[in-house]
Protein: NUDIX hydrolase
Organism: Actinotalea ferrariae CF5-4
Amino acid sequence: MTWSEVAVVVVAALLLLVWLVWLAANRLDRLHRKVASSRHALDHQLVRRASAAAELAAAGALDPASSVLLADAAWSALTVGGRGDVDLVQDVAHLADDPCGRLPGAAEREMAESELSLTLRTALADPEEVAALGQDDLAGEIVEAVAASWYRVQLARRFHNEAVAQTQRVRRKVLVRLLRLHGRAVMPRTVEIDDGWPDGLPRPGNVG
C-alpha cells in the first residue's frame, strides 16, 4: 500500500471517528434536553397536585384533623426549600444551566411530596367517604382535580425517570466518558417519591 493510500485510509478513519463523535454528542444533548423538559413537566404537575390538595383541605369537606394535616402537607410541598410558583421559575432557570443535576433541596422536596402522598392516601382511603365527597359539587370538583393531577404526576415521573435512565446508559459508554461529551453537566438522577394511588380515590373521570 502506497503512502497516498495510507493517508486516504487514515483520513477516512478520522472522518468516521469525527462523525461518530458528532452523532454521540448530538444524541447526548437531545437526551439532556429531554431530561430537563420532563423535569419541568413533573415539577408543574407536582405543584398542581399540592395546590389541589390545599384546596381540598380548605373546602371544609374533610374532618377537622384531616384538613389540618392535609393543609400542612400541601403547604410543605409547595414551600419546601423556598419553593412555590415564583421559586419554581428560578428552578427552571437553574435547570437550563445544569439540566441534569438535582435541584437544591431535592431530597427535602422529594420527602415533602412523599409526605403529601401519604397524607392524601389517609384522607382518601375510604371509597364511601370519597363517594360522599363527590356528591358535593365543590368538593367533587376538587377531588377530581386531585385525581387528575396525581395521575399526571405518576405519568410525568415515569416519563422523566425513563429519560434519566436512557441518558445514564449513554453517558456510561466508553466514547462518551473518554471524550467527556457531557461537558459540565452532572449525571442525571431519577426522582424518587411515593406516589402510590389512594385506595378510595377513583381514577380520573370516575369520581362519582
Observations:
- Confidence is low (pLDDT under 50) at residues 81-102.
- Residues 3-179 form one domain.
- Residues 3-58 form the longest helix (56 residues).
